[in-house]
Write a structure and sequence with these properties.
This protein is an alpha+beta fold. It is built from three helices and eight strands. Strands 1, 2, 3, 4, 5, 6, 7 and 8 form an eight-stranded antiparallel sheet that branches.
Length: 172
């Protein structure tokens, strides 16, 4: 009986604390400017000579590449790039994406066609990075290469260097 009453009391005390935490997270400083995403035109379609392979996971047979020529850290804190995924079965998928380092989110801007053109994504909303066993290429790019310590790379060359080295020196 003591355990039950102790658990009820603990739950009663935790509920207001949880509500305060939620309110605190939703609160914004009125003096701080609201984040605004910059317009990002689609880059030239990736060329094989500009692809830099990067490691994602030992559990995937796919090969992952960033087109170093499209790597673009923006003044809005978003790092944009063309991603090329080659499957073990021979298929190639090309996307143009962005990483918002501060919030650990990614956005799909466009998908590539076989004829070397881009098609704007139907659903281009910001999504939380998934650090799952499969489909974790954005999480790997963010954590290991393009957003060390949740800060965006400052230059495209810094990102290309991190990809070539197998990781950013400041990645945790």
């Amino acid at each position: 009986m003591r355990r039950v009453s102790a658990l009820v009391m603990l739950a009663a005390l935790a509920a207001p604390a949880a509500a305060l935490e939620v309110r605190f997270r939703e609160w914004e400083d009125p003096d701080e400017p609201k984040w605004q995403e910059l317009e990002a035109p689609f880059p030239a379609f990736p060329k094989d000579d500009d692809l830099i392979e990067f490691y994602v996971s030992a559990t995937t047979t796919n090969r992952f590449f960033v087109d170093g020529a499209t790597l673009s850290p923006g003044a809005d804190g978003v790092v944009r790039y063309a991603l090329v995924v080659r499957t073990a079965g021979g298929a190639t998928n090309v996307t143009y994406e962005g990483l918002r380092c501060a919030t650990l989110e990614y956005r799909l801007y466009a998908t590539g066609r076989r004829d070397g053109t881009w098609v704007q994504a139907r659903k281009g909303d910001w999504k939380e990075l998934a650090n799952s066993v499969t489909n974790r290429q954005q999480a790997a790019l963010s954590r290991d290469y393009l957003c060390p310590s949740r800060l965006p790379i400052l230059t495209a060359e810094e990102g290309r260097d991190a990809l070539r080295r197998g990781g950013h020196p400041n990645a945790k």
